[in-house]
Fold these 2 entries.
Entry 1:
Amino acid sequence: MTPLFYVIIRLMNKMEKALGELGHMDELAVQDSPVHAMNAGAKLLCTVIYILTVMSFDKYDLSGLIPMLLWPVLMFQMSGISVSTCFYKLRIVLPLVMAVGLFNPIFDREIMLQIGGVGISGGVISMITLMLKGVLCLMASFLLVATTPFDNICAALRRVHFPAMLVTLLLLTYRYVGVMTEELAVMTDAYHLRAPGQKGIHVSAWGSFLGQLLLRSMDRAQELYSSMLLRGYHQHFHYAPVKPFRSRDAVYLILSLLFFTVVKFWNLSEIIGMFVTR
Amino acid sequence: MHMADALLAPAVAATMYVASGAAAGVSINKLRKDDEPSKLPTMAVTAAVVFAGQMINYTIPGTGSSGHMCGGMMLSALLGPYAGFLSMIVVLAIQCLFFADGGLMALGANIWNMAFYGCFVGYFLIWKPIIHSKWFGEGKSAIRKRIIAASILGCVITLQLGAFSVVLETSLSGITELPLGAFMGLMQPIHLAIGLVEGLITAAVLCFVFESRPELLRDVNEVGAGTLTAKRSLKATVGILAIVALVVGGGLSLFASGNPDGLEWALFGNADGGYSTNMGLDEENFGVSSDVADKAESVQEKTSFLPDYAFPGSDSAAGTTVSGIVGSAMVAGVALLICFAGGFFRKKKQS
C-alpha cells in the first residue's frame, strides 16, 4: 500500500476505512501476474493445505515452522504484491493470539535453548511459534483473496459442490456489503456533524440509527428480488467462465504440496544449519 | 471473539467445521422446504446491514466507552433461526476473507461460537420462549419488555457460551499454557459485560423495528399485540428473577472449589491436594512469604470483612453463600464506580 493510502485511511471513519480496504482488495485481485492467472480452485486448495500444515506444527517446533515462510513470500513476489501489504491486517489477527500466547512464558519456564549463555524457556519459544503461525496463516489467506476475484472463489466453491444457496448468498451479501457500508458511512458522518465531539451514537438514537437503515434495506431487498426476477433469475446464478485448470496449475499444485510435505516431515532449518556448521 | 488459525489444532478446526457444516446443512434443507425464493435477497441485504452495523460505536452512558452490536440474535429475530444462521455464516466468511477477522481454517469454530449459539440456542431456548410467554402481562408494552428481556438474556447467555467454546477449543488444541480455569476467569467476565451491552443495543434496534414495522418480527406477529392475558405480573416476574439470581449466585458458591484457583495452583502448586509438581515455583522465592507480603497479608486479614469468601472465623456453608452474593455485589459496585469515575475524569479533562 502506498503511504498516501495510510494517510487517507487515517482521516476516514470506520466504515469508510472498511470500504477502502474492500476496494483495495478488489483492485489487487484484478491485477495481472502468474499467480493471478492461476486457477482459483488450485489456489484455494493450496491455501487450505498450507494453513492446515502450519497449524499442525508442534508448539515448540519454531525452527521447523520457519521454512514455511518461504512459500507465501515467493507467491507474494510472483504476484507483484508487496509482503508488507498484508501486515496492515495484523492489527486484527495479533491481539487475541498475543493475549493467549503471552501467558506461555509465565507458565512454561523450563529452559529449552541456550543462546550465548542466555537460557530461553519453552514458553518463549511456544509464544513466538504461535505468533509466527498467526502471521503465516494471515499471509496465505490474504494472498488467496488478493490474487483471486471473489466471483472466481465462489465459482470454485460451486465446482466442488458447495451448496448453491450459500454461494449465492455469499455473492449477494458481498455485493451489498459495499452498498450498506457506504450508506452507513454517510449516516455516521451526518450524525457526527450534528453531534460534534460525541464519541459514538447516543443512547437515545441506539434503536433508530440502525433500525431505520434496517427497515429501508428490507424494503430494498424486495425491490432487488423483483429486479432479479425481471432479469430471469430462477434460483440459480450463471457464473462467468472461470480460468480453466491447466497443466501449469497442476505443476503449481504438485510443487507446493511437495514443498509442504518436505517442510512438515524434515526440519529444513536444522538440515541447513548442520550443513553450514559441519 | 474471532479466532485466528494459529489458535487451533487441525483436528479441532476440522471438528468444528464438521459441526458447523452439519448445522448449515440442516438450515439449507429447512429453507429449501420452506421454498421462499424471495428470502435470499432479504437475507443478503440484512446480513450486509448487520455487517456494516457491527462497525457502529454506541456510546455507553456514563462510561465514555462504546459497545457494538450482536448479529446472531438480531438476524434470527428478523429472519428466523435457519436463515439467520446462514446470514451470519456469510458475514463471518466475508470478515474472515477480506478483513482477516478470524482465520480461514478457524471459520468453522467461529461459526459455531458466534452464529450457532446466537441463532439456534438464542432463538429456540431464549427468544421464542420469552416472546411466546405471558411475562410482563398483556399488550404492546408487555411485548416490548419481552423483546428487551429476550435480547439481553439471549446476548449475555450466547456470548458466555461462545467465550466458553473459545476457551475449550484453544485448550483442546494445546496452544496455551494457561490453565482452563484461569483462562475462563479471563474470558467469561469480559464477555459478560460485552454481552450486556450487545443485548441492550440489540434490544434498542428490535424495539424500534417493533414500533415501526411489527410485522417484520415473525414471533411477535404470531403472538399478536394486545391479545394476551396476564398470567404473571411484572412484580412477580422480577421477584422470581431476583430469587433465581440469589439461588444461582449463592447456591453455586457452595460448590466453589476448596482448592486454590487455577492460576494460583499453576504457579505454586498444592501439595495437600497432591499437586506438587507443576510450575516448580515456591512461595518463598516468589515473594509470597516475604516480610512485605506478610505485612500486607496481616493488613488484609484485619481489613477484609469476608476473608476467603466467608465471615471471619466462620467455616460454615452459610458464610460461603453470603460471601458469594456480597462479593458479587461488591464487584459490580466497584465496576460501576470505575465506570463513573472514568466518565467524570474524562468530562473534567474535556472542560
Note: Residues 31-148+243-271 of chain A form one domain.
Entry 2:
Amino acid sequence: MKVVALAAPSRWRLVEGLFWLAAALGWQFAPDYSLLINEIAIFGLFALSLDLILGYAGIVSLGHAAFLGLGAYTAGLVGKIGLVEPALGLIAGGAIAGLVGFATSFLVLRGSDLTRLMVTLSVSLVLGEIANRWVGLTGGSDGLQGMVLGPLLGRFEFDMFGRVGAAYSLIVLFALFLLARKLVHAPFGLSLQAIAGNRLRSAAIGLPVGRRLVGVYTIAACYAGVAGALLAQTTQFVSLDVLAFHRSAEVMLILVIGGTGYLYGGLIGAVLFKLLQDALSGLTPQYWQFWLGIIFVALVVVGRDRVFGLPLALMRRLR
Amino acid sequence: MYRRVLFAALLSALPFATQAQTPFKIGVLAPMTGPFQSTGRSIENGVKLYIKQHGDVVAGRKIEILLRDDAGVPDNTKRLATELVLRDHVDAFLGFGLTPLALATSPVATQAKIPMLVTVAATSMITTTSPFIVRPAQVVTQTATTAANWALKNGIKKVAIVVSDYGPGYDAQKWFGDRFTAGGGTVVEALRVPLANPDFAPFLQKVKDAAPDAMFTFVPAGVGGIFAKQFVERGMDKTGMKFIATGDVMDDDNLNDMGDAVLGIVTAGTYSAAHPSALNKAFLAGYKEISGGRRASFVAAYNYDAMELLYRALTKTKGAGDGAALVEAMKGETFESPRGMITIDPETRDVITPVFMRRVEKMDGQLYNVEFETFAAVKDPAKIKP
Amino acid sequence: MLTLLIDGLAYGMLLFVLASGLSVTLGVMNFINLAHGAFAMAGGYFGVVLVNVLGVPFLLALPLAAIGTGLLGLVLERTLYVHVYARSHLDQVLFSIGLVFIAMAVVDYTQGSQQQFLRLPDFLRARIDLGGATIGAYRLLIIAVCGVLAGVLQFVLVRTGFGARLRAAVDDPVVARGLGINVGAIFAVTFAVGSGLAGLGGALGAEILGLDPSFPLKFMVYFLIVVTAGGTAGMIGPLLAAIMLGIADVGGKYYFPTFGGFVIYTLMIVLLVRRPNGLFAR
C-alpha cells in the first residue's frame, strides 16, 4: 500500500498537459483521421465513465452499454421530435441515462463481483429487449429513422468528414474529464476509494457507503449517456447495437488495457484499442481478431511494461 | 527545342494517361468477423471470383478492391465508408451484410455521390434512402410473397410463421402473412425467435400444437439447418405439416452438411446451385477453386452479379467514374446472372429477378435445391404502386 | 406439457454440462475464465472432425472430444494460465477474452466460418413415446449423460481426498504446499477436467445450439447465468439452477412467446437482488 499525500494528485502535471495538447494537435493536423479521433474520444469518455465506478468504487459492470444506449436513443429521439440543437440532445441523453442509473443503482449495492456483473448485464439485456420490441419508438432492428440534427449552438454545421463532430466530442470529453478530476480528488472521490478498499471499515468510520455508491453510479451513468448521445449525434444513426453486449465487453477491455483508477486509463486504453483495431483490421480484415487476441494475452502474460514500454512510462507519470 | 516538344507531348498526353492509369477503387464493406462472418466470406469470394474470371481492367481502368471489416456494427460501417471516401477516394461501395449497416451508410453515398451496391441486406426500404443505391441482389418481399402465392395455390389454408427477431425476419413475416391472408389463408401463429437463441424446442412445440398445414420460416442460413433438423426430430414432418421457407434458410453454402433431415423442404429463392445453365456451372467451378472446395451461396452469386453490373456500367461510361453517370448506366441494365436473367428496375434501382420454387433433393449423392417452378421477372411488390 | 418439461430439462442439463467446467474454474479455482466457451467450441469441432471427416461413431466421439479438449486445456494451463492465476480479476478477463479472439480466428481459418452439422446416428434421431408425450431420443441421451456427470462431479469434489486437497489448495496455496500438496498439479488436473467437460458439452450441444466460430461469445452469457445463479459450492447448485433456467426459458418462450427474452433476464435480476450469492450459497 503506497502512501499518497492527499493534495498531490490533484495538481496538474506537464505530461497531462501534453496529453491534451496531443489530442488537439491530432485534430488540427490529421483531418483524415477525424472520424477515428471522434470515435476514440467517445469511447474514451465511455471508458472514463466505467472507470468512475470500477476504478474508484470497485463496482464491476458488464452492462454499461445500457447507459450508452439510453443516451444514444434519447439524443436520437430529441432530434426526431424537432429539437435539432445538439446540445439539447446531449443534456437530455445524460439526464435520462443518469435517471435510469439512479433507479438501477440500488440493484448493485450488494453482492459479489460476479453478482454485480450479472445484474448489470441483465439490466442492459432487458433494456436491449425493450428497444427491440418497442418498434414504434426505436425503429426496432432497422434502427431509428428520421433523426434530424441542426448546427451546433446554431453555428457549426456537422460535416460529413467529422471535423466538427470530432471537435465537439473532444471538447465535451475534456469538460467532463475536468469535472471527474475535481470529483475524484474531492472528499467524495476519496471516500469512494476508501469504500472500494474496505467497505466494512468505511462504514465503521461513518461513511455513508450506500449513498456514495448510488451517487457515483448515477454520475457514471450520466457520463455514459453523454457518450451515447455523442455517438448518436456524430454518426447521425442509432440502432439496437448501442445496447448490445459487445459494447459493454469492449469498454471493459478498453479500460483494463489502459488501467483502472487514475482517470486516464480509459482514455489511453481507447487510443490504444482503437488504433490497434483500425491498423490490424486494415491489414487483415478477416483475422485481425487473432492478432488483437495475441496482444491481449501478451499484455497479461508478458506484462504491460514490456509490451507497451513507452505508453506505460507515461501512464506512471500520470498516476 | 527537342526537350520542349517532348514536354508538350507529355502534357497533351497527360489527361489520357491519368484516365488510363487511375484505378477504379471499390470499397467493399462486409462483416468479416462476428456472428455474420460467413456472409462476409461469401461477399469477398464472389467479388474475387468475378475479377479472376473477367480480368481486372475495364474500359482502361484497373479495378482495385479495398476490403474493410465492419463486424456487423452500423457505426463502424459508416465510419469505414466515410474514410474510404476521404482517404482512399473510392469510386463505389459494395457489400452491406445487414439492413442497419446499409441504412447507416446511405447518407455517405448520397453526399459523396458514388454508387452503393447493396448485395446482401434485403429489407425493401433500403433503396429508397439514397438515389445512389442500386441493389442487384434480392428483396425479401420478392421471395416471401412468392412463397405465399405458391402455398395458396397448393391447398395450404393454415400456416404458422416463425422468423428470426431482426429486420428481414419482420419483412418476411409481414409480406408472407399479408399476401397469404389476402388470398384467403389464415395465419394461426406468428413467432419471433431471438437471434442468439439456444434452443428451438419451445417454438417448434408451439407450432406443432397449433397444427397448421405448413410452417413458413425465415431465419439466417446457418440456423436454418438446425431448425429444420429439429423440425424433423420432433416428428412434425410425419404429421403432414409442410416446411416452407425463403431460399436463405436452405443456403447452398452448407445445405449439403445439413443431412437428409432437410430432404423435401420447399423454399422460394432466387439462386440455386442446381440451376441448369452454362454460366452457373462455370460460376460454381470457379467458386469451388477459390474457396477451397466449397459450394457457392446465394450471397456469393449476388456479389458476382454486382461486379458484372459495375463492369457493364463502366464499359457504358467508357471508364468515366462519375457516380451519377454510373448509376444512370446501371438503370435498366439486363444481363445473365448465374441464377438466370436479371434486370435493374430503372425506377426503383432494385433488381427484377426470377424467383424459383425449389425442393431439397438428392443429386449424385449431394443435397441440392432443385427448381420446379419459375416465376419470371418478379419486382419488389412493396414498390409496385397500385 | 410433459414434452415441454422434458425439453426444458434436457436443455437445462445441456447448459449444465457446458457450464459445469466454468463453475469449477470460476467457483472453485476463483479464476475468471471467459474463454470457457472457446473450450466448448473446441470440443464441438473435435466432434465434427471425428464424426463427419474420420467416421468415428458418435457415441465414441463424445468422450474423445472431451479428452482432446481436456488435453488442450492442460497444455494451455501449463503454458499460459499458470502465469495468470495470481493476477487481478480484470487481467484475467483481458487474458481470457484474448484467448477467445485467438480461438475464433483459428477455427475460422482451419474450419471455415459456416455453421457445422454433426451427423447423428439414426437411433438418436428416433422419437420415443412416453405415455402420451413423445420425446426425442437425443434429448434423453443428454439427460442421461448429464445426470451421471453431475453425480460423479459432486462426489469427487465433496467426498474424495482430491476434492479436499483442491479446496485446500485454493483457500491457501502456501499452507497447502507446506502440507505436501502438489498445488500446481492439482490446479492443472482440475483445469483439464473443467475444459474437458466444456468440450463434452460442445460436442453434445452442437446438434441443438449449433456450432460456428462465434460460439464462445454467443453463449457466454448463458454460461455465466448458470454459474452465478447456481452459486459456487459444489455441483448441486449449478445443476438445479441450470435445470430451472432451462425449464423457465422453454416454458417462457412457449407460453409468452412475445416476452420470451424478458423472462430469463428479469428472473435473473430478481434472483440476484434477493440472493446475491446465488440460489444455493455456501
Note: DSSP finds twelve helices and 15 strands in chain B.
